[in-house]
C-alpha cells in the first residue's frame, strides 16, 4: 500500500473533472455533504444484512470487495472535494481529532466499552 | 495545505488507539461502515436547513467551520480504519474511480447536467 | 388522501412477507436501523444536486415523483418493521415528540430560525 | 398498540407547528429529505457498536428504548411532513411497494437469502 498520498494532485484531478463538465455549480458545500452521506450509505448497504461474522470474512468475496472499493472511493472523492472547496487541511483535521479523542476517551474509562463520552456514567 | 499525506502513519495511530482501548472487537467492517454513515450524516446536519447561498458563505462562520472540520475528520478516520481492516489502497481506489467516472460521464453527455449515468436518456 | 391508516394490518403483511421468505433472521433491530438509513439516503439521492427551487417544483416531474413515492414507502416499511419488532406504538411516539419539541422550541425563541435548541445562544 | 392512525391529524399538528415558528421556508422537499436521513442515522448510531445479540436484547434497556422511541418519532415526523408537502398518500405507497416487492422477491428465489433482486444470479 502506498504510504504517501498526494491529496493536492487528487483534488486537482477532481476539480478539472468538474470544470470540464460544468459541474461546479452543483458542488456547493451543502450538496457535497449530501452526496457524501449518500455514498456512505451505499457502502453500508453492502453490509446491511450481514452478520458480524459475514462482515469479518468479506475479503473472501472478490465481488463484494470490488463493490466496497468503489463505494469507499466515492466517499473519499466527496471528502476531498469538500475539503478543497472549504480550504480544510484534512490531515491536520484528522491529527487534531485523534488528539481530541484521546482526551474524550481516556484509556481507563473506555477500555472494552464503546459508550459515547457524553453518555458515560461517571 | 499539506500536499503529501502519510496514510500509513494515521492508520497506525488509529490502530494503536483502538488496541489501547480494546476497541478492535467493535471495529468489524460492518460496524465501521455504519459509523462512517453516522458521521457523514452529522456533517450533513450542519447544512440541513441552509439555503445554497448560506452554504456557499459557510467559511465566514468560524463556529460552523469548527464543527465541519471535526465531522470531516471523523468521516476520514472511519474511512482510514475500514481501508486498513480490509487492506484497501485508498489512493489507488480513488484514481481508479476517477478513471471509471470519466467513462461513465463523457463530457459531451454530462456538460451542465448531473443526471446519473444510469438514468440518462440517450 | 386516506385519513386513517391501519398500522397493524401493514405490519402483519410485512411480517407475513418476512416469514414466507425466512427473512426474520436478517431483521434484527440493528439491521433494520441500517436498512432504514440506507433507504432514507436513496430518497436524498434524488434531491442531492437540486437547487431549493428545483426541489419545490419536483411535483411537476412524474418520473421523479414515482421514484420518491417508492423510496418513501421503503423508509416507512422499515420504520413499521422496527416498531413491530420493538413493540413501539408509533403514533404515541410521534405525539410525545411533538409535545417535547414544543417545549424545546418555544415560539418566541424559534420564530424564523432553525437553530438546534442545544446550540441556541440565550 | 393503536391500530388506526390518523395521519391527517398528525400532519396538521406538524404544519401548525411549522407555521407558528415560520419554519415552512426551511421545509423544502430537499431539506426534509436531508433531515430524514440525519434522523435515521441518529437511530442507527444507537446500534452502531452492538453485536446482533445485543441488538436483539435492546428492549431490556429502558434507557436505550427511550432514545430509540424518540429517534423513530423524528424519522416518522419528517416522513409525514414530506408526504404532506408532496401530496403523497403514504398508506397507498406502502401497499403498492409491498405488492411490487412480492414480484421482485418471489418466495422460491428469495427464501433464506437477502440478495438484492438486481444482484441475483439466476
Secondary-structure map with pairings?
The structure is a homotetramer of 122-residue chains.
Chain A: E1 4-6, H1 7-21, H2 29-47, H3 52-56, H4 62-86, H5 90-104, H6 107-110
Tell me briefly what this model is.
The first copy, chain A, has 122 residues and is mainly α. Chain A is built from six helices and one strand; from the N terminus they run βαααααα.
Number of helices of chain A: 6
Structural class call of chain A reads mainly alpha
Could you tell me the mean pLDDT of chain A? 93
Q: Summarize the biggest pleated sheet of chain A.
A: none
Regions with little confidence, pLDDT below 50 for 5+ residues of chain A = none
Overall outline of chain A: globular
Architecture of the largest domain in chain A, according to CATH? Orthogonal Bundle
Most extensive chain-chain interface: A-B, 76 and 76 residues
> Over all CA atoms, what is the radius of gyration of chain A?
18 Å
Instruction: Kindly provide the name of the CATH class of the largest domain in chain A.
Output: Mainly Alpha
Distance between the termini of chain A: 41 Å
CATH superfamily of the largest domain in chain A: MazG-like
The oligomeric status of these chains comes to homotetramer
Helix content of chain A: 55-70%
Number of domains of chain A: 2
The proportion of residues in beta strands of chain A is under 5%
Q: The CATH topology of the largest domain in chain A is what?
A: Helix Hairpins
The run of helices and strands of chain A is EHHHHHH
Amino acid at each position: 500500500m502506498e504510504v504517501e498520498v498526494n491529496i493536492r494532485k487528487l483534488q486537482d484531478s477532481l476539480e478539472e473533472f468538474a470544470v470540464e463538465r460544468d459541474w461546479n455549480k452543483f458542488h456547493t458545500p451543502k450538496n457535497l455533504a449530501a452526496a457524501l452521506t449518500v455514498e456512505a450509505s451505499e457502502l453500508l448497504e453492502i453490509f446491511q444484512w450481514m452478520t458480524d461474522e459475514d462482515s469479518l470474512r468479506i475479503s473472501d468475496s472478490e465481488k463484494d470487495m470490488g463493490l466496497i472499493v468503489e463505494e469507499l472511493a466515492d466517499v473519499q472523492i466527496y471528502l476531498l472535494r469538500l475539503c478543497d472547496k472549504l480550504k480544510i487541511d484534512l490531515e491536520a483535521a484528522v491529527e487534531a481529532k485523534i488528539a481530541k479523542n484521546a482526551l474524550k476517551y481516556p484509556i481507563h474509562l473506555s477500555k472494552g466499552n464503546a459508550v459515547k463520552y457524553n453518555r458515560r456514567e461517571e
